[in-house]
Structure formats: C-alpha cells, structure tokens
TrEMBL record:
Coiled-coil parts of chain: none
Pfam family, one: GntR
PROSITE patterns in alphabetical order: HTH_GNTR (PS50949)
Gene Ontology MF terms in the entry: DNA binding; DNA-binding transcription factor activity
The name this protein goes by in its record: GntR family transcriptional regulator
Organism: Paenarthrobacter sp. AMU7
Amino acid sequence: MQGRVSAVSIVDAIAADLRSRIFAGDLGPGDTLTETDVATSYEVARPTAKASIEKLVPEGLLERGTHKTARVVDLGPDSVRDIYLARAYLESEVLRRLAHSKTVPEGAVQANRDIAALQSGTPLDVVEPDMRFHTSLIDAVGNERLSRMYRSLVGEVRMCMVRVQSLHLLDTSLIHAEHRKILELIESGQADAAAALLDEHLGRARDRLAEAMGGDPAARPDPARPRPGHPKG
C-alpha cells in the first residue's frame, strides 16, 4: 500500500505562522493585520493573504467587520470569564465520565511530566504541554463532536493561557501538582472531587487573569452553577 502525504496549502501555512505570532505576542491585542501587509510580508497575492486572515477570524484570534481591517482580538475581563466558563462546562463533565470508568489517558500523564520537566522558557513552552494535558482528557472520552467543540475554543484558550504565563500569574509547580491530583482522583473514581478540583484549577487562572486585566475581583462567574463538594481555597 502506498502512503499518502498531505501537502499544507500556502493559505494554511501563512495562517499557522500568523497564529504562532499571535500566541507568541509578536502580534498583540488590537494590532491590525491588512491584506496588503500580509501579502507583502509573505510574498503572496492579496486573495491568498485575505484567505489566510479569514481562517483566524472564526478561531477568535482576529476580529473583522464588513469591509474592515482585521485586528488581533483584545480580550477583556468578561471575555476571559466566558472562555474559562465554557471550558469548565465541558471539562467538568468529561472528568466525571473518565472517573466513572477510571480512565487516565497516557497523553495527559505525559503532558504533565513535560510540565514538571520545564526549567525555564517562554510562556508558550508552558502553554503547549498544559493545553495538551486538557485536550488529552477531552479526547479520551472518544466523542468526535465533543473534541471538535472543544477545539473551537482552543484559539481563545491559548490566548488566555499565554497571558497568564506572560504575567506570571501561576507557577508551573502549582499547575503540575493540581494536574497530578486531578489524574489521581480520576484513577480512584472520585468523579465529583475531580470536577470540583478542575473548577478550582480553572477558576484560579480565570480570576487572576480577569483581575490583572482590570476586572472586578469580586465578580462571580456563574452564581446559578451548582458546585457540590467544591473545595475552599
């Protein structure tokens, strides 16, 4: 049988590079991205530049009105809370299901080892294994639509996580310790405790980032959401 090699299109390659520049902070919140600039920078035609830009709009990385120049999204405190809450809704249920079957995905275990092994580096060096930890948990459920739904948030999630690391709001040792405890709770079948710890884990990042961005530290994300057994911290 002959193997198949998928070629990455020029549009996808440019979009991937622009995405990396946004995550790395080379393109910051509010920065404009014109078709002319992209076409000139990457030596491509304007339609190619336009298509590359348009790929990042539905990912939540760029915003663009009708006949308007694209800009890097400038997430405010309310958006940060919304993004983390969307994650919590999906991930909490996933953890409960994994705990019921005591399924600990090896991908999550390895990702947490990679976090523990970090000595120094850029914010992205922390974000990459951190994101891999969470997506491994989602994928372990084996539901294609759930994984696709979660990945629709990934662009905005990464932007938040990069800001958290850039502002030194969370120590990697704490991230690693809480990840490890989550996996232990899953392995021992403690579904509610695993979900509660995840809520605390995500909530700490959410609240610190929202406050650092000028949000009200007293704001509560969702008073209607029941959180039984949520540990105090």
